Amino acid sequence: MTETSGELARTFRRSIVASRLKSISMRLATIAVSLLILSIAVFSLVQLVPGDLAATILGPYATSEQLAALNKSLGTDQPPLYRYLTWLSGFLRGDWGQSMLLGVPVFPLVMGHLTNSLLMAFSAILAVVPVSIAAGMLAAVHQGKLIDRIISVSGLVLLGIPEFVSGVILLVLFGVYLKWFPVQSQVPTSIFDFFYYLTLPVLPLVLLLFGYFSRMMRSSTIEVLESNYVRSAVLKGLSTREVLFNHVFRNAALPTISVVTGQAGYLIGGLVIIETLFSYPGIGNLAYQAAQGHDVEVLTASVVVIATVVMMVTFVGDVLMIWLNPRARQEDRS
Fold first, then answer.
1. Which has the closest alpha carbon to 206: 170, 238, 175, 172?
2. Is residue 196 part of a domain?
3. pTM (predicted TM-score)
């Protein structure tokens, strides 16, 4: 009887693992198909962007013969389908081609700018997440009191200020008038440079995200505090610290994690305004410049890489939610 029960338990655990692996495989397949469709859409839309790459390179005084010769040498006179299939086969092999506008390999160009954007995005996430979670829990624990109203109103106000508005204000105040920070940001090479060059670009993102994260953490913490198992923990005589960290935090953090991963993807892919405002060499700024210059290879690769990172960050967030979910972990122990 015992052996049969143990065998059934092992079979149950194997079925759970198989189910999760199947779910992960399906999500990865969905990501691959989505990226393929996205690359086709981006490549097609680029063809509709006004302008001509040859005219951008040669300038406004180039003759039609010179433009035709350059288009032929660049291969931009080929049919769009042929150009897309050529680009796709090279992209899958790791050969992303040359930037027609800058004359440099696309792969190191895009990956270098992606690294810069990741540095800024995760700096903002690391700065805002602990503060927002602590503020949200503090507001929930003191629901209806002055501290709750201050945090809630502050989050709501910051949520309503777009990052480009707060960015301009901070740039003018701290960069132009006070001259505490540079008006043009660079990639930091030391700890001092990190704070000197990234404080102004990161701060507008932190202010905006604080509104999202703190309000989400507050609402989810209030919901958890009103649950039966938290009341049972209090009645058992557990200290407030034990209740908050062992019972409330992990359950209240689940919705916040979903928001954090979603906003992390947004930060990586949606930094065009901040990167352009502060002249930061990130992938969003690179894609914007490639669109202006009709640089198809750089623009398509940038968008596909951004989408890949966004989808993978979301995927990691889903895995983290499964790991933090007490029900999922209880199934693994069964």
1. 170
2. yes
3. 0.75
pLDDT tens for 65-79 read 666 666 666 566 567
* Total of domains in the chain: 1
At 20-41, the pLDDT tens digits run: 677 777 878 888 888 888 888 8
What CATH number is given to the structural domain containing 211? 1.10.3720.10
Q: Judge whether 266 lies within some domain.
A: yes
Residue 235 domain flag: yes
Structural domain includes residue 131: yes
* Residue-number span of the structural domain to which 327 is assigned: 106-333
- Using CA atoms, how far residue 33 sits from 23, 26, 94, 321, 323, in Å, is 15, 11, 18, 24, 26
